[in-house]
């Protein structure tokens, strides 16, 4: 008989974002060994769980009410809780969690993403070991934001993480990079193991020798995220006009959902700009491109789009924040400003060909695609 686990995830399993993909793959890979119950949170449309039905015993969807969420954020601030920890919180979900933990002899209760870590304090009496999957060190996230309010939120994040981790010290922690692992240890005294994100089967099955490489750059992401939207605006306001002015023969492809109407309406008629939106398999666009344009000016943790692009053999133009936590250095091209970006785009489009991409992909996969760093394997290792 399979042992049971409970997975509490800030995001539903799915294909639309990196967080959804990781959650989906974790479930699919752990289902052979465990019976999985799940609590997940969603703000928007209900995700399609049909393909995962055979992998999940019970799935409890918590659709977040924005008014109620605002209420808990305000209450949380009264108790010095950063909103990132309280936005998904509710007494009703606490009671559900306690009930499920009491009625089931879970081997592990897994908290997937920092946004649900607050619930770890409300499990009640249980013999289950807790597992914390840390994709971002939240204090680092707020340390990069400007303004007095963000300074206060940064202090709250440090305070909250110290309390959460100190009250759960005898449990298990997984960090997305060696850099984050070191931060967790130096700031909070937490020892963690490094995990690698799952690479989708569509990436692993790519045959670059059969794919036509276009004179194209790709911008890729969930465009409803502020840090991604900042990248998109930077490109179209400061980089793309210089490309046009210099008569550079280059196609631009924008992949991912949530793009703003203003960007869409402004560039939809431009014959050199393709606005694709959300697609089930964005990796074909990455594989065909000369580079991924992804300078980021905020955020924390490893950027999954960089991992995916390099695994497709496509170099990435970005900032230090774009590349943090990734020790592999080939194919990661640092840009300083818009003028430098245009120069680097020109350089990279001249040197990137099929052989370049095949070589980059092989080197990156030999570095990153190691089964022993996958979450399900690391969790298996906890069993001794």
Structural class: alpha/beta
Number of extended strands: 13
CATH class of the largest domain: Alpha Beta
The CATH homologous superfamily name of the largest domain equals Glycogen Phosphorylase B
The strand order across the widest sheet is 3-2-1-4-5-6-7
In the CATH hierarchy, the third-tier topology of the largest domain is known as: Rossmann fold
Taken in chain order, the helices and strands follow as EHEEHHHEEHHEHEHEHEHEHEHEHEHHH
Q: Tally the helices: what do you get?
A: 16
Based on CA atoms alone, the radius of gyration comes out at: 21 Å
Report the mean per-residue pLDDT as an integer.
89
Secondary-structure arrangement, i.e. CATH architecture of the largest domain: 3-Layer(aba) Sandwich
Describe the model.
This protein is an alpha/beta fold. It folds into two domains: 3-198 and 370-381, Rossmann fold (3-Layer(aba) Sandwich), CATH 3.40.50; 202-368, 3-Layer(aba) Sandwich (Rossmann fold), CATH 3.40.50.2000. Helices cover 43% and strands 17% of the residues. The protein is built from 16 helices and 13 strands. The chain has helices spanning 18-30, 66-78, 83-86, 91-103, 138-143, 148-166, 178-188, 201-204, 226-245, 261-267, 283-288, 304-311, 320-323, 338-351, 354-368, 375-381; strands at 3-9, 34-42, 56-63, 106-112, 129-134, 172-175, 193-194, 216-220, 251-255, 273-277, 291-293, 316-318, 332-334. Strands 3-2-1-4-5-6-7 form a seven-stranded parallel β-sheet, sandwiched between helices. A six-stranded parallel β-sheet has the order 10-9-8-11-12-13, sandwiched between helices. Strand 8, helix 9 (226-245) and strand 9 form a beta-alpha-beta unit. Helix 9 packs across helix 14 (338-351).
